[in-house]
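Dear H.,

Thanks for agreeing to be a second pair of eyes. The structure we're designing against is below in C-alpha cell form, covering all 278 positions.
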C-alpha cells in the first residue's frame, strides 16, 4: 500500500482499530506521532504508512507489553530486537512469541511487499427502512450484543409482518474510547411497520439507513483478525476516495446464526465515501 496519503484521526482510528483516545495518548507519549497536525485547528492526520506501526502497537498491547518496550521495537525495526523484547516480557508468553514475531515482521514488510487481499470495490447503497437495536458495547460484550440484537430484530420483524430485504448488520461510529462504543444493529425491511409493544419495550425502533457510496471489502472467516481487513480498507479509502461522515457498516452476510464454523463466516465491511477531493 502507498504510504504518503493522509487519514484524519477518526478515519485512522477506523482503519487501525485503535480508539481516538488511545491515538491521542500514543501521540502524547511520542509512541505514534501524527504525520501532520494542523497548526490552527490542532487536527491530527496520519499517513497510510503509519497503519503498520499502529497494528504493531495494538498487537503488542494485547500482550500487555510496556510502551517503552513497544517503542524499542518500532525504533529498531529489527526481528532480533522484537524477539528479545518479547522474551524479556515473561515466560508465560513463550508459546505466543513465535507467532507474534512473524506477524510483526509481515506487518513491517507490508509496504514493500503487500499481501494479497480481497479486492476493495466501490458501490452505491440505496436508502433502506430498517429496524434498529442500539447498545453500548465493549470488545468483550460485542458478540453477545449482536446475538441479542439479531434475536430482538428478527422477532420484531416476524410479529409485525415485516418482509426482511437484506442482511443483518451494524453501524459503527468512530472509536472514541477503548472501553465502550455505541453500536446500532439493524435489519432492513421492505416498509416501516407498526411495531408491537413487546418489541418497543425490548428496544427495537424503526429508522432509515441513508443512501451513500461505500468502499466495500469482504472479510472471510472469524472476526478475530478483522482489524487486518479494516487496515487495508482504510488504506484504499485514503488513496482512492474521501471518507464520508457516516458510520462504517458491517453486513453479516453469513453470520453466527447461519453457521457454527468460524471459517464459513462472511462479513462485508462498508466504509461510506465521497469523491476524492470533494
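And this is the sequence the design step returned. I haven't edited it by hand at all.
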Amino acid at each position: 500500500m502507498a504510504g504518503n496519503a493522509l487519514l484524519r484521526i477518526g478515519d485512522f482510528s477506523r482503519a487501525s482499530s485503535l480508539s481516538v483516545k488511545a491515538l491521542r495518548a500514543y501521540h502524547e507519549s511520542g509512541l505514534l506521532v501524527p504525520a501532520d497536525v494542523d497548526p490552527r485547528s490542532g487536527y491530527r492526520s496520519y499517513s497510510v504508512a503509519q497503519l503498520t506501526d499502529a497494528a504493531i502497537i495494538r498487537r503488542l498491547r494485547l500482550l500487555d507489553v510496556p510502551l517503552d518496550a513497544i517503542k524499542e521495537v518500532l525504533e529498531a525495526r529489527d526481528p532480533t530486537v522484537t524477539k528479545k523484547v518479547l522474551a524479556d516480557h515473561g515466560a508465560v508468553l513463550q508459546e505466543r512469541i513465535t507467532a507474534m514475531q512473524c506477524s510483526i515482521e509481515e506487518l513491517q514488510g507490508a509496504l514493500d511487499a503487500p499481501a494479497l487481499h480481497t479486492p476493495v470495490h466501490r458501490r452505491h447503497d440505496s436508502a433502506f427502512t430498517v429496524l434498529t437495536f442500539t447498545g453500548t458495547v465493549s470488545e468483550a460484550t460485542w458478540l453477545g450484543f449482536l446475538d441479542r440484537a439479531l434475536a430482538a430484530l428478527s422477532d420484531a420483524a416476524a410479529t409485525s409482518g415485516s418482509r426482511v430485504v437484506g442482511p443483518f448488520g451494524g453501524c459503527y461510529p468512530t472509536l472514541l474510547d477503548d472501553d465502550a462504543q455505541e453500536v446500532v444493529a439493524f435489519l432492513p425491511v421492505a416498509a416501516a411497520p407498526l411495531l408491537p409493544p413487546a418489541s418497543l419495550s425490548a428496544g427495537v425502533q424503526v429508522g432509515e439507513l441513508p443512501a451513500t457510496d461505500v468502499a466495500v471489502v469482504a472479510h472471510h472467516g472469524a472476526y478475530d483478525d478483522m482489524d487486518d481487513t479494516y487496515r487495508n480498507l482504510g488504506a484504499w479509502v485514503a488513496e482512492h476516495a474521501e471518507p464520508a461522515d457516516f458510520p462504517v457498516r458491517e453486513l453479516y452476510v453469513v453470520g453466527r446464526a447461519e453457521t457454527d464454523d468460524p471459517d464459513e463466516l462472511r462479513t462485508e465491511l462498508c466504509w461510506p465515501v465521497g469523491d476524492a477531493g470533494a
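Two observations from my side: Confidence is low (pLDDT under 50) at residues 113-117. The first helix runs from residue 9 to 16.

Warmly,
E.
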